[in-house]
Amino acid sequence: MTDLITTRVQYAVVIGISIIMLWKLLKKRPTKNIPKKWKKVGELSDLMCFPIKSGGVVRSDEFDCINIGLQKNYIRDRTFMVVNSSGEFITARAHPKLVQVAPYVDNDYSVMILSAPDMSNINIDVAQLSTLKPKKAVVWGEAVDAIDAGDDAARWFSQFILGKESGLRLVFYPASYPTRDVREKNKVFKSAVPADTGALHDATSFMLINESSIEELNSRVEKYVTPLQFRPNFVVKEVKPYEEDSWKWIKIGEEAVFENVKPCTRCIFTNIDPITAERNSNEEPLKTLKTYRKFENCGDSPVMGIHLGLRRKGVIRLNDPIYIEEN
User: Fold this and answer.
1) What number of other Cβ atoms are within 10 A of residue 168's Cβ?
2) Within 10 A of 46 (CB to CB), how many other CB atoms are there?
3) Which of 43, 143, 184, 188 is most buried by its number of CB atoms within 10 A?
4) Is 293 helix (H, G, I), strand (E, B) or coil?
5) Its domain of life (predicted)?
6) The overall pTM is greater than 0.85
7) Architecture of domain 38-325 in this structure
8) What are phi and psi of 111, to 5 degrees?
9) 59 phi and psi angles, rounded to 5 deg
């Protein structure tokens, strides 16, 4: 009888722990209802994927939208990053030449070919990497699983970025779901949840910019800037400048639905030319943005674009219609 009671108590404890863990998991997931009525406001004019954090862009006419970002077969948004000898990530903020690492992909999007000025091309077999055992790397102070891309890639990046034979390595994020918590500075935004933190992204899995907002900024600065300088995933057209600030729900095409999680704050990365890797000597366009685009809860950082959380998966195609919730 005593054994039976003990067994039942043990089962109760296990069930109780399972319920608590499930509750915590569900609490982290967005549970809001997706709108049923939509109105078209514009179209998708550009679709960008950045496989390497701070690296160059891969464009395609279509991508799948999954929890960690854009995906086409093995190529995913911001699933590679360059780390130092301590396993901590580096970005173009301190190493601008990273923006000149140009990724190209093979026909089935399983191999990434990297080129850079005065460097021989190097191939990264992403499909093969996905089968290897991960170690740990650090992004924004938080440890993540990461697969080392090998000595050849390490030497290539060390030579191009540092002018040395060693010091940097390329690592790959293998999971198909987010594993990090919301960064401390973003917790002020109630819509920010761990399920939206992406792979190796700064804030969320997706970011949208309005090309009319960029054009309005260009009316204020001397040197012309393009959306690429802001590294978005989605660029929309036929929308009034800064109208995107007020969007709550966004649908792109007929499937994928997003929620506006927070404004996209800008830093010195914005001042780096994505082609030449040169910093703007006048600290533009960041300097001008600070004169008119500061938002509540964003500190001293100006805003351009919005961070999105995926609420319904789907395929997105170039020139897809952009919808927002119809009130």
Assistant:
1) 21
2) 19
3) 43
4) coil
5) Eukaryota
6) yes
7) Beta Barrel (2.40)
8) -120, 135
9) -105, 150
